[in-house]
Design a protein that fits this description.
By secondary structure, the protein is an alpha/beta fold. It has two domains: 169 residues, Peroxisomal Thiolase, Chain A, domain 1 (3-Layer(aba) Sandwich); 143 residues, Thiolase/Chalcone synthase (Peroxisomal Thiolase, Chain A, domain 1). It is 33% helix and 26% strand. The protein contains eleven helices and 13 strands. The protein has a five-stranded mixed sheet with strand order 1-7-6-4-5, with helices on both faces. Strands 8-13-12-11 form a four-stranded mixed sheet, with helices on both faces. Helix 4 links the parallel strand 4 and strand 5. Helix 3 crosses helix 4 and helix 8 packs parallel to helix 9. It binds oxa(dethia)-CoA. Oxa(dethia)-CoA binds next to helix 2, helix 6, helix 8 and strand 12.
Length: 322
């Protein structure tokens, strides 16, 4: 009997209507378009307003991914939704999406909290559920509304993040020419204080704001994400020369450039959406993937490397034969 793997069959995305440019940010905090562009590569970000809650954005992205696969909610066995900014403390954002897209009662839906690494974690969980034979098809969603947990007086964080959602449909396959080859996940809790919120349910019954030691996170990000990519390539007996595209977490262009340099990847092999989206946390990788799939850059058979680092610290990689 041939082995069961999982493959991504479609993508979908949603970005809030409101775009906030660096120039507009200059009116809110003591910053400049030049500083933000030079230090991060970010030029603008989308900001969720009104009805654009986390579950709203996730549902839109999910429906678009389903449409692109010519499927409906009825065809999905599970939703695995990565977010740090769910609508409510409970229930999970995923169950609202489950209801919004009309899934069957016997399906299940839950949230995963690994902050900016959330999409890699959620994809890994879906891949393993499918390989274990428990489900046939999953929606994996990365969505965040970081604008709601930013201290808009703190220029060291508020210029970095944006809101958005993207989803992929993952399904069982026996085709070794189009599959998720591997996922590698890591966390190191001793670094939880370098990126965190200063509030929470059991701590002080508040949501809290994002607090970050940017330089510390930067150092870990380059080192750990490079290691996670090396490990993924080695586990699959591949080298950096085999990579068609790097689909990185979009936090800082300097981080992405350092990783690409280590891999000796030319810039046309790097999918970058950072300048338009900022850091959208769990949504950043699937948003970049969606853009490059939609514009025809990524084609079936390409080898994709995805990598992320987020608060925790959490990090990981996914190697995908598209
Ligand atoms: O997605 C989760 C993972 N997150 C990340 O990967 C983020 C990693 N870190 C970073 O991307 C960078 O560390 C930042 C973009 C956050 C900061 O860049 P940096 O080059 O590390 O700047 P810095 O923190 O060393 O600050 C340099 C200077 C400071 O001024 P002084 O002390 O040199 O006078 C800051 O006060 O830049 C100042 N600064 C700003 N100036 C204008 C900090 N933020 C701003 C700002 N506008 N928004």
């Amino acid at each position: 009997m041939s082995k069961t793997y999982s493959r991504i069959i479609s993508t979908g995305a949603y970005l809030p209507k409101k775009i906030l440019t660096n120039k507009e940010l200059e009116k809110i905090v003591d910053t400049s378009d030049e500083w933000i562009k030079q230090r991060t590569g970010i030029e603008a970000r989308h900001i969720a307003k009104g009805e654009e809650t986390t579950s709203f954005m996730a549902s839109k992205a999910a429906i678009r991914a389903l449409d692109n696969a010519k499927l409906s909610g009825y065809d999905i066995d599970a939703i695995i939704l990565a977010t740090t900014t769910a609508d409510r403390t409970f229930p999970a954002c995923a169950v609202t999406v489950q209801d919004n897209i009309g899934m069957e009662d016997k399906s299940f839906a839950f949230d995963v909290q690994a902050v900016c690494s959330g999409f890699i974690y959620a994809l890994s969980i879906a891949d393993n559920f499918i390989k274990a034979g428990q489900i046939k098809r999953a929606l994996v969603i990365g969505v965040d509304s970081f604008s709601k947990i930013l201290d808009w007086n703190d220029r060291t964080t508020c210029v970095l993040f944006g809101d958005g959602a993207a989803a992929v449909v993952v399904e069982a396959t026996n085709d070794e020419n189009s599959m998720i080859l591997s996922t590698h996940l890591y966390s190191e809790g001793k670094y939880r204080n370098i990126l965190h919120t200063d509030g929470g349910v059991s701590l002080n019954q508040q949501t809290g704001y994002v607090r970050m030691n940017g330089q510390e996170v930067f150092k870990h990000a380059v080192k750990r994400m490079s290691e996670a990519i090396d490990e993924a390539l080695k586990a699959n007996h591949l080298t950096a020369d085999d990579i068609s595209f790097l689909v990185p977490h979009q936090a800082n262009k300097r981080i992405i450039d350092s990783i690409a340099k280590k891999l000796k990847l030319p810039h046309e092999k790097i999918i970058l959406t950072l300048s338009k989206h900022g850091n959208t946390s769990a949504a950043s990788i699937p948003l970049a993937l969606h853009e490059a799939v939609s514009d025809g850059r990524i084609k079936r058979g390409d080898l994709l490397v995805m990598e992320a680092m987020g608060a925790g610290l959490t990090w990981g990689s996914a190697l995908v034969r598209w």
